[in-house]
Each structure stands twice: as structure tokens, then as C-alpha cells.
Amino acid sequence: MMNKSIRKSEMFNEINKFIIDLPTPPNINYWWNMGSITGLFFMSQFITGFFLSMHYISDINKSFFMVVSIENNIWEGFLLRNLHSMGASFMFIFIYLHIFRSLFYGSFIMNYKVWSSGVILLLLTMMTAFLGYVLPWGQMSYWAATVITNMISAIPILGKPVVIWIWGGFNVGDPTLNRFFSLHFILPFILLVLMMVHLILLHLNGSNNPLGIPSSAFKIPFHQTFSYKDIFGFMLPLFLFFVLIFLCPDLFTDVVNFIEANPLSTPPHIMPEWYFLFAYGILRSVPNKLGGVIALFMSIMIMYILLMSSKNLLIYNSLRKFIANLIASSFILLSYIGSQIVEPPFIVMGQMLSTIYFLLFFIMASM
């Protein structure tokens, strides 16, 4: 009995150190709430997705109407579906704000392991979101799946066999939808584990602060100051979240996706969800198919180049903040370019902005 109580006591002490008594810089501002808000919306996605999976059927003849049935015939199905679809957009909003804060305040410099795990999390989250986007089996879902998966065929030797394996045949169909549903269900569990690893790595070294100066000599416990601050920080995002769900739930949904998937009718303008548009804008800027695939992948992996930057937060502090603002501006403009039809002047603008986007990361890494 004593051994059990000692183990429980040791476990409680570790949890206490990890959450309650965690040493935290006293001057961190609301930009540091972006990570916790992202975690809040991830848990919302995790829970609503679990309940939606109980009613969803991965069948190309039934999936579209099953989603309609969930909204109309399942108790509170409308709310459940919109919590999940709107939650994806909100989660990505705060993911991108979280990344911007890391770039602006140089958080990536303080702990490279946290930054590395964060990039992996972003890549897997985007993959999970793409798989989920296909599941309603609307017109845009089908053609987005066809276009994006077909890009893999540009990879020499292995590309075409991999595409056929993903499709489960020679075109996007039932086997593809089954694979996407299975992966979309499994990946959040992997993401949950990786998020815990991300948090552990962060708490081992601690957070930086807005001033960029060492704060090891003066830190305060996370609870109560910052736990209450986090709870207060949830209020505005959740208020906006529920206002949009009840007043304009389809704000971020493409109208073409309200039409059932039709392989014989190609939409005039194929466009993914808004949170993929910056990468899609970079993809379209490269005329070569293989080059476009590489550029698409590198739009995320370029963040690893920041591991080469100086470990001194005070060096080029103002310049780094200016470059972070430029990266954010190029991200927004690339997202706009990705939403437009492929025609002049958007082609040249996309190529220029893609070059600037990558160049800015190289400049920041050289500091």
C-alpha cells in the first residue's frame, strides 16, 4: 500500500511540475495563447469526428446523402457536422497564428526540438484535413482528391504504382474513399500523441518571452496566472466560433461542394479549402509537374531551414520581426493567388510571391 501511495505521489508531483507549477516567464502576452487555443479546437475536432464516424458510410453512392442525412435526420446532427467543419478552419487559423508568433518572437531559436516536432504536426494536420475534405464526396471533394493524388504520379519510377495503390484502382472510387476514411480516423490519434510530445519538449526547456532575453532567474508558476489567462483567452474565439456556426455555418465551404461528385463533369475552377491555398498557389506557380510537387512539399519543409539560424534572440531582433511580417504577407497573398483562375496576371504574381516566400525563410535562417 505504501509503495502504491508513493508511486501515486510521484506521479502527482510530475503532473504538478508539468502543468501547475511549470516555471513560466511572467511577461508572456496573449500571442502565447495561440497554442492552447489550437489544442482546444483539436480536441473539439477529435470528439466531434468520433461521433460523426458513427453515422458516416464510406460508399461513393451513399456518402454525399449520408452527410445530408446526418444534418437533417440525426439528433443535433446539424450542430455536430458544423462544429467539425467550422472547427477545422478555426484550428488552422490558430495554427498559422501560432507559427507567426514563433517567427515574430524567435521562439524557434530557443528550442529546435519543439520547432521540429511542430513542423511534423503541421504536415500531418494538413494531411488529415485533406483526407477529411474528401469524405463528404461533393464535386469539389472528388476533383481535389483526383488532382492532388494524381500529382504523385510525377515522382519517377514509384509515382504511378503509388497512385494506383492509393486509388485502389485506376481512378478515384470506393477503395479510395475507404482508405481516406480509415486514415482520417487513425491520424488524429497519432496527432494526439505527437501533441503530447510537443508539449513535453516545450515544458522541458520552457517558453521564451516577448523581450527575447533570458528569464531563467525570474519565472512564476503557470497556475493561477496563466491558467486563468488561457481560459479567458478561449472566450473570444469560442464566441466567434459559435456565432459563425449558427449564423453562417457554410462561410468557408465552396458552393460547388453542395453538388454530389460527378466524374463526368469537371468544375471550371478546382480549388482546395482556404487553409491549403498558399501551398496550392506555390504549386501552380511551377510549370513543371514534378517541380510543382517538390515546391508544394517544400512550402512546409522550408521551415526546417530555420534550425540553422543563430541561437542569440537579441541579434537582428527587429529585422527578424520585419521578415516575419513579410512572410505573413506573402502567405496571405499566395492564398489569394491560389483562389484565382490560372491566367495572367496571377501566374506571374504567383511565381514572384513563391520566390519571395522561400527567399524570406533563407534570409531569416541566415541571421
Automatic annotation (TrEMBL):
Keywords, comma-separated and alphabetical: Electron transport, Heme, Iron, Membrane, Metal-binding, Mitochondrion, Mitochondrion inner membrane, Respiratory chain, Transmembrane, Transmembrane helix, Transport, Ubiquinone
Domain Cytochrome b/b6 C-terminal region profile as annotated: residue spans: 212-367
Cofactor remark: Binds 2 heme groups non-covalently.
Any one GO BP annotation for this protein: mitochondrial electron transport, ubiquinol to cytochrome c
Entry annotated with the keyword Transmembrane helix: yes
CDD domains: Cytochrome_b_N
PROSITE patterns in the cross-refs: CYTB_CTER (PS51003), CYTB_NTER (PS51002)
Annotated TM spans: 30-57, 78-99, 114-135, 142-168, 180-202, 231-252, 290-310, 322-339, 345-365
GO-annotated molecular function: metal ion binding; oxidoreductase activity; quinol-cytochrome-c reductase activity
InterPro entries attached to this UniProt entry: Cyt_b/b6_C, Cyt_b/b6_C_sf, Cyt_b/b6_N, Cytb/b6-like_sf, Cytochrome_b_N_euk/bac, Di-haem_cyt_TM
Top-level taxon of origin: Eukaryota
Entry GO CC: mitochondrial inner membrane
Role summary: Component of the ubiquinol-cytochrome c reductase complex (complex III or cytochrome b-c1 complex) that is part of the mitochondrial respiratory chain. The b-c1 complex mediates electron transfer from ubiquinol to cytochrome c. Contributes to the generation of a proton gradient across the mitochondrial membrane that is then used for ATP synthesis.
The name this protein goes by in its record: Cytochrome b
Species of the source: Gordionus alpestris
Gene coding for it: CYTB
